[in-house]
């Protein structure tokens, strides 16, 4: 290909000149091609790989040189001699003559450069080459990656790194390529090539470790192998990227969401590192945004735009605090360098003024931001203040236009009801204290039914105390409220509050009952989603009410089990509110739908927050704070269970082994984590845990769980079994009390179920929480995330293994394959599904993989993927005819006609070919060629043509099957004999039926159609479907083949073809013809085939529906595509040329060579091994030197 001219200093180094003229030189790389160039060639090849030289990819090049200059310019390079020769000849024919005219050297150089750039521009224009951000060096690496590993265009390289791969005890220096779906390694040392390809989806462990010999090592484990890489220039960057890509693969296995590149990234700056690809920048930006969202609890679609160092003036302690400012599409956030000192979140919807203040020595480049609730924030020491202000004002403009749009929408929707609009409008502008506290708000009934709707927290309605009652507990509660009010005065109230160590102190002392809802909303970040989605919850409730599915059934079942001991849920009002919130969420997020434990958590949210607020708190919990906890397989909780085990090993090592032996950790962690201790602790104590959780996240739950174990360390060490350990922990948790609670005591369900042993002395919840912070407060959120990643790999791969075992267990009794073979085949089947998810198939991957389906249905493949597996595994795949044969086979296996087959259908088909007897195999082959084609739409149908066409296809299939067999010639002769024999039989059959019809046509009747089964003989109409024996249970036994024409002249009055059942044609209509056709059938047994019946499917619509069960034993090789209209007499010639299966079977049995071929056993294990070793990606790998391909799984 032509390249943009670059100067070359040493033209002769490591290159051999093959052709030359006064202006151009064609060179070949030393060591390339025949002979290899001896030792020098091997050294050059090794150097090219180690130094990432482009000569490895393009061993030919053309240089331009003016006669008197020493500077050369590379203008083209090529991967093959043919490609470079074409370029050379073009230069000789088109440029040499022109160049001799020029007098000045500089003019010649300018002309040649301009010409080459013009050719490149023309090529890009004609081939629609898109401009992208990737550098030429990176594009070259991508091309090299695709060529080396046979990857298609769709497989995008993210980055590549130089490193050593330990193969045995020998390190191989080479390049590690990380693409979206694969980790690949390539090395070439002195003629020896090493290749490795591993799917991210197959990785079970990815860890960075250090040993004395190897200080920096990345270890990649799959189910079967362990690969070790070392000597990285930047191990941290490599490991982070590998971790991120493995995470994307796990996410894909979990919920089938593939990777989609973000096209909205800012352009590269000139100073950016040369090797970074657009994809790598995309992934880096994602990782930063993820950390940013987690740090400030922001909505999950928020993207970080950038961050900068600065100082923030904090009025409460009159200081300038050093920290970082983060700016994203809808928020400005700040966090101090010292983590606990101060953090701040300013939503742009609250901002009124952003202005640059005057610089001074004390306050260099300050920036002032004012908000609607009259707070002003002063930032200083900003490096690029003008640019920052411009970005913020751009985002502000977008935000105000969004708010304006929403207001317009809401006012038009609710113009008839001003009250509703004002309620909506208040969400946009007000601070939380206005929208949360007023109990005089109008009752807004969400679903026009008679059930009252909760517009205030349920707790306020069920506070059972008289106004004059006053006791020390209430006094303490009053003091708490005062403390929070003072805090709001000093630090601000609402979203823009300064969050400091003081805030945390107040949370640890317990949030007052009346402020819980407001502060939960604030600390969880749910307030932001609620403010930006006015009216969303009401719409959801309206849409979801009255709809029924599996989730709503489960919700109904669990409604009365949610805090049944609390008076708020002992009447219809509380129950109805709970129903609405859970159903609305199930409709918002069908991936989660409803999971047990959500009811308990939601009922507590409803006690302290209004219905809409409780909904957004649930959204924050399920989608951000407890990711993947509440899906069908509680993956998130299992992941955190693994994290808890790791933390237990680190923080309570003396207890860890004992707990592992008893198997207690797995039992306790699920119930503790899924319900945030609400189901195992007295209610008034558990809500304190929820307070801390909303403020500090999941680390609170881990700290508390470790504290509970630590407090019971001696009793647990003395336990003999898990039951005893559970009793110890149960008693302890039952005794956790909240002495400050003003609530009437609520009997705790868990304590009612424990035995009557000595109760545990009371434990104060505030002391327990504080001690958990003192002992285990060093656990950091980012460390937890790191541990979660490691556990997620393990948990998801364990789930995948369980699915595999269940599938194999389900079908092992139905097939002759062994368990090991089935497991290997399942891995190949799943790999084929994943490949199509990566690089696109003809159908949507979400249709083919649905984790909520039964195990057998989870992975399905379409016809394109089946073709690949057919060519690898099926013994009949040979020659050019194997693709059409695969399509025929696929349609036969696809019993429900959805153009997808599951693993059971796949195994049934393969089982017949590998373990079936001669008759089963031949019946399968025959039926493949009887099924109608997909795409025939003929104006003038020709039944005889169809029959002969299908017969020819059958013969072609037979010939291609034998193309690489040992007894090829013998088999060809046998096939020729069988073919001629069948042709003669077809002709005889035609004579019989045509004479029958001649008699019939003498009566002046219209020509009848002969169906596959004729009801005039009950014996035939009741023939068993013995294809069902081959393919498992048949789904469509009772469907009869429709006749092609109606009765006599009444055909025009009959309904459409597919509605005509076989019973409509009485024996008298078919007259002598039918009698003649079935005359000898009475003598046959039930499983035989009638000799001369004809299958003709009447309409094209039926072609799609005709499944393998429709074709009974009396099927023959002929079809008419008449689309329901009666045939004119002119087309009735040769209409009855037909071959039955019986004739086909009998003909094959006459040839011993064919019988031997179809009866010989198939080596399944060898085919599976071969399929695993063949890397079916794009094109096969071609390499003369030795190479290793490691396919994990």
From TrEMBL:
Record keywords: GTPase activation, Repeat
Biased composition range(s): Basic and acidic residues: 996-1006
GO BP field: system process
Keyword Repeat: yes
Coiled coil (residue ranges): none
Domain EF-hand: 881-916
Stretches for region Disordered: 423-447, 996-1092
CDD domains xref list: PH-GRAM1_TCB1D9_TCB1D9B (cd13351), PH-GRAM2_TCB1D9_TCB1D9B (cd13354)
Domain Rab-GAP TBC, chain residue ranges per copy: 510-697
Single GO MF annotation: calcium ion binding
InterPro entries registered for this protein in UniProt: EF-hand-dom_pair (IPR011992), EF_hand_dom (IPR002048), GRAM (IPR004182), PH-like_dom_sf (IPR011993), Rab-GAP-TBC_dom (IPR000195), Rab-GAP_TBC_sf (IPR035969), TCB1D9/TCB1D9B_PH-GRAM1 (IPR036014), TCB1D9/TCB1D9B_PH-GRAM2 (IPR036017)
Function: May act as a GTPase-activating protein for Rab family protein(s).
Protein name: TBC1 domain family member 9
Organism: Amphiprion ocellaris (Clown anemonefish)
